[in-house]
Amino acid sequence: MVSINPRPHEWDVSYEVLALVASLVVGSLLIYAVLYSRMTNKVVGHARRMLMHQKGQLEASFMEAYEAKLEEEGERTS
């Protein structure tokens, strides 16, 4: 005899569950993108500050060496 009421399949998933999973995935990706962007901005800002500090140190070192060279040249010509 043929059954009139078919048994539900084990893999049948309602649309609500699919929508929930999809929204969790999209939400997780959005949070990841925001956090990644914030982290990248922090790292870039820190790198810029370090480079500016090093640039200042190099400029100061160069100026000291240049002034010493000028004084040395002035003493030779005197």
Describe, in plain words, how this protein is organized in 3D.
By secondary structure, this protein is mainly α. It contains 1 helix and no strands. It has one helix at 15-77. The longest helix is centred in the middle third of the chain and has 63 residues, at 15-77.
What attributes characterize this protein structure?
1 helix, 81% helix, 78 residues, mainly alpha
Give me a quick take on this structure.
By secondary structure, the protein is mainly α.
Give the end-to-end Cα distance, rounded to a whole number of Å. 122 Å
Q: What's the mean pLDDT score?
A: 88
Question: Number of helical runs?
Answer: 1
Shape: rod-shaped
Low-confidence stretches: none
Which structural class do you get from the secondary structure elements? mainly alpha
Set out the fold topology.
Blueprint: H1 15-77
